Amino acid sequence: MLLMDLIAEIRRRHLVRHESISSIARDLKLCRQTVRRHCRTEAQPSYQRSRQPTPMLGAVQQTLETWLRTEGLLPKAQRRTAQRLFEGLQAEGYRGAYDSVQRFVRRWKADKSGPALAHAFIPLAFAPGEVCQFDWSHEHVELGGVMQTIKVAHFRLTFSRQMFVVAYPRETQEMVFDAHNRAFAFFGGVPQRMVYDNLKSVVETIFTGKERQFNRRFMVLANHYLFEPVACTPASGWEKGQVENQVGNIREWLFTPLARFISFDALNVWLATRCRELAQRKHPVTPERSIAACFAEEQPSLRQITATFDGYVEHMLRVSSTCLVAVDRNRYSVPAAFAGRAVSVRTSAAGVRIVADGAIVADHARRYGRDQLICDPWHYLPILERKPGALRNGVPFQQWDLPTPIRLVRDRILKQPKGDRAFVELLMMAREFGLEPLQVACELVLDGNVITAAVVLNEMRRLVAPSTPAMLNVPDMLKLQTEPRADCGRYDHLREVSHVIH
Questions:
Q1: Where is 133: in which H helix or E strand?
Q2: Beta bridge partners of 360
Q3: How much is the pTM?
Q4: By the 8 A CB rule, do 362 and 379 touch?
Q5: Three-state SS annotation for 33-86
Q6: Residue ranges of domains in the chain
Q7: Spelled out in words, what is the top-level CATH class assigned to the domain 131-301?
Q8: For residue 333, what is the enclosing H or E element?
Q9: What percentage of residues in the chain have a pLDDT greater than 90?
Q10: pLDDT 10s digits, 444-487
Q11: CA distance linking residue 80 with residue 102, whole number of Å
C-alpha cells in the first residue's frame, strides 16, 4: 500500500469511524506512535535524506578537494569526470566505493556553483532575419585514410533554427571569411546581426562591458555584407546558447560514429546536405511546423547578397632567389622576373595569389600540411632560356605533368647533342601559343621516322601560321576595266637607261 493511501485509511477509520488507535495499529501492524502521527497528517509527507557519512573517503578527501579546486580553473573539456577522479584516488590508496566519490563531487560542485538564481535564464524570442550566431568546434574525422582533427564553423539563425556547418583544417581568419561566404550563400541572404565569441580573428581588444575593438579586416567583411557584429561577454556562452547547443548536437548527429571522406570538399558537400535534411525536424518553439518551414518564412527577411566578399588575408613577403615565397610552412613559386622583390601575398581558404605592380602575377591552389613545394614551371622558363642545363634536374620540370607525346619527344631530344637547348626553344614557342600546338606537333613527328627539335618546330609553325585570307567579293564598280599585263621588257629598258647614265 502506498504511503498516502495508508494515511488516508488511518484518518478515515479514526476520525470518521471513531476506531481506536490501538485497534488500527494491531490491524495494520503499525506502532501506535506512527498511527497517531498519521492521524495528524494532511499534506503529503516529505523526507530529506541526511548527508551520508563517508568514512573511507575521509583519508583522501583533502586530496580530492585539491584536485577539484585546481581543475575548476581549467576549461570544462579538460576537467576529469567523477569516474576519472575515482580512478586517481584508487592509485592514491582509496579502497572505498565509487558512489561515495560521485556524491562528494556532485555536492562539492553544487556548493561552489552559488545560488540557483545565477543559473536562471529568461527565454528569448527573435524576429525573422534578426540574428545569426557563430561558433567553432573541433571534431575528429578520417580524410583520405588519415585521422585528422578538423575545425568546424557553425552558423545558426535564431528565428528558424536553420543551421549551417562547414569544415576546415584550421581556424584562421581567411577560414572565417570563407565560412561566412558559404553560409550566406546557403541561407540565401544576410541577417541583421552576427553574434560571436571574442576570437582573435574577429575581436582585437576587449574593453569594459560590451565595448570591443574589432579586427580591421573583419570589419571590411561586415561592411561588405552590412551586418552588425556583436561580441559576447567573456565566459558567457549562454549569450549565444543556440549555437553552443548545436555544437554538441552536430557532434552526436554527424561525427558519431567516425566520419570518413576522401577530402574536405567531399566532407563539406555532405555536411551541407545533412543540414538540409536536419531542417525537416520539428521546430522547438512551434512543433507543428518544421525548421525548413520556418526558414522559408525567414528567408525573405534576410538581406540579399549583391557580391561575394573576396576573403583574403594579405602579407608583404620577399621572393627568394629561387623564385619562391613561404606561406604557412609551404613554398609557392613566383615568376622569375620578381626574384628578390617584395610582393603582396593574398591567402584565402582555397588559394594563394601573388600580386605585384597592381596585377596578379601568380595564382596557386592552397595546400595544407607542411614543407610542400608548389611550382609552376612556366615561372622558371626565362631562367631556363639562359641555363638550359637545368631542364634535366630542375625540380619544377621534374614535377611537370606534360602530355605523353611531349614527354616522349622530350626524352628523345634530350639524348641528342645540345638537346636541352633545343627542347627549351620548343617550350619558349609553347609559352606563346600554348601546349596544345606542341602536343599536336609531337604527335605528328612521332608518326614519322625523324624526331628532332627542328622538325617539331617546323610542325608547330605550320600549325600556328595564320590561315590564307578568303577572297573578297569586289563590287563591279571597283574592278579595273583594263587590267595591267606583266611586261618584262620594261626591265630591259631600265638596264639601257642605267648603262647610259654610267
A1: strand 131-143
A2: 355
A3: 0.71
A4: yes
A5: HHHHHHHCCCCCCCCCCCCCCCCCCHHHHHHHHHHHHHHCCCCHHHCCCHHHHH
A6: 3-39, 58-114, 131-301, 313-374, 381-464
A7: alpha beta
A8: strand 330-333
A9: 55
A10: 999 888 889 999 999 899 888 877 666 777 787 777 777 777 77
A11: 12
